[in-house]
Amino acid sequence: MLNRKAVEFATLAAMALNCRINETSIFARKNYFYPDLPKGYQISQYDKPLAEHGYIEVQAPEPLTAKFAKEGREGRKGEEERTVSKKIGITRVHLEEDAGKSLHEGFPDSDEKTAIDLNRTGVPLIEIVSEPDIATPDEAYEYLTRLKEIILYTGVSDCNMEEGSLRCDANVSIRPRGQKELGTKAEIKNVNSFRFIREALVYEIARQVEVVESGGTITQETRLYNSHEGKTYSMRSKEQAHDYRYFPEPDLLPLVVDEKWKAEIAKTLPELPAARRARLVKEYGITEYDAQVLTVSKSLADQFEAAAKTAKNPKRVANLVQGELMGRLKARGAEIEQSPISMQGVAASADLVESGAISGKMLKDLYDLCFERNQDFPEVYDEEGRPQQSTDTSALEKIIDEIIAANPRQLEQYRAGKKTMIGFFVGQVMKASKGQANPKLVNELLTKRLE
Predict the structure, then answer these.
(1) pTM for the full model?
(2) 312 shares its domain with 258
(3) Interatomic CA distance for residues 232 and 211, integer angstroms
(4) How far is CA 293 from the centre of its chain?
(5) DSSP labels for 312-381?
(6) The domain containing residue 397 runs over which residues?
(7) Helices 4-16 and 259-266 meet at what angle, rounded to 10?
(8) Is residue 388 part of a domain?
């Protein structure tokens, strides 16, 4: 039986990937024998898939100019790395059923055995096949990152690689510079992180270059990546497509996704990451880099936007999320969902700094307490007695006089023309006031006294 929701999810993903949805697609039986496929065939789509001809835009290094062609990127040392938008084509998005999983505990020439996990056999999935437009391991990493981001936004999958809800097989083939035809490909399977995929590609490209340059030939095969050794190993020879003896699946009728159904599915398509980034930059005055960080997940983007709408300065909220919040979460090994400080808490703290009620130092201390106590910012701020920056001019002038009197050498340097010494005096006053002095007021009073 065909699962209606699986079709809707697949169509939604294909739309998000800019694909053309075929009104009629055909299911086929892909025949092959392997221990993780107990019935001897897999239900898939072959010559008439659900969707075709899409693309993803990624940021890739700018192509080398003639000036640097001989030196390669080394010739650009000292220049800022420039990137350009590049389209990676999507050949097709098709529906199929999952096979089982072979657990290869060892590698060739070992005494280990293979275990078979059939728990996910028959679960519906989509296979997204890209065009051979990816030129480097870094581009592959960027492509996968953007792909995962898009799929997460649609809600089609949680993209958890450890649980098998996102997997990647990478086909690698090389060719001499200037030649159009690609060489024989090798497929790397069962890599469980984007970082390992990038590492596997670096190794596999170097391996194939070495084989070809030493006069050997590349065998079409499936290979596994051993992350501990940083090497790929041959797993089995790879069949050509016609060896699968595809024929129409006799138990399933052709799948028809007509215009009406397509329109219903299109209504559920959310604002996608690239469009959201552009809008956040325009509406909230943040940088493109800010927008990139804040849209890494739909949840984070939703939370930021809810906070930014109420904050006095959305840019300050963006800075606090990236600097103070993300830094602490990374140190704790936690995700944004586990943050004790909510996005509304970040907005509240940003407003206090914006109004001059608290200093940056006071904010850092309060954030530290939030993480220590696992409490949100407003709660900790209230518990600490709602601390305020000191704007008591006479009290600050007294501290300033004491600091100047205690540092005659620095005073002499300042009056001799070394105006940067004011930073030293500001630091000493802030330290003496335990971070509660208003830095702007301290600067004004110090300048007046020192002059």
Answers:
(1) 0.75
(2) no
(3) 14
(4) 8
(5) S-HHHHHHHIIIIIHHHHHHHT--GGG-SS-HHHHHHHHHHHHHTSS-HHHHHHHHHHHHHHT--HHHHH
(6) 393-450
(7) 70
(8) no
Q: Are 336 and 366 in contact (CB under 8 A)?
A: no
What 3-state DSSP class applies to 196?
helix
- Please write the tens of the pLDDT for every residue from 120-152: 899 999 999 999 999 999 999 999 999 999 999
Q: Cα(323)–Cα(67) distance, rounded to whole angstroms?
A: 39
Nearest residue to 133 via CA among 92, 169, 175, 87: 87
Contact assessment for residue 377 and residue 346, using Cβ atoms and an 8 Å cutoff: yes
pLDDT of residue 132: 92
- CA end-to-end span of the chain: 85
Same structural domain, 184 and 45: no
**Taking Cα atoms as reference points, which of 352, 355, 324, 354 lies closest to residue 340?**
324
Residue 451, both tokens: 């002059």
Amino acid sitting at position 394: S
Instruction: Report the pLDDT averaged over residues 70-82.
Output: 54
Whether 306 and 319 share a structural domain: yes
Q: Give yes or no for a contact between 169 and 188, defined as CB atoms under 8 angstroms apart.
A: yes
Query: Pairing mode, if any, of strands 20-21 and 83-97?
Result: unpaired
HSE value, Cβ hemisphere, 13 Å, CA-based, for 19: 25
Looking at residue 108, its pLDDT comes to: 56
In this structure, the chain runs to a length of 451
Q: For the chain, percent helix, then strand, then coil, each to nearest 5? A: 45, 20, 35
How many domains, in total, are found in the chain? 4
**Contact 203/175 with Cβ under 8 angstroms?**
no
* Dihedral of the alpha carbons of 361, 363, 364, 365, in degrees to the nearest 10: 90
Residues 443 and 396 sit within 8 Å (Cβ to Cβ): no
Per residue in 200-255, pLDDT (tens digit) is: 999 999 999 999 999 888 888 889 888 888 888 887 766 555 578 889 999 999 99
Supply the angle between the helices 439-450 and 422-432 in degrees, to the nearest 10: 130
Beta 221-226 vs 186-191: how paired, if at all?
A: parallel
d(CA 272, CA 291): 13
CB 185 within 8 A of CB 159: no
Look at residue 64 and tell me whether its pLDDT is greater than 60: no
Q: Are residues 191 and 324 in the same domain?
A: no
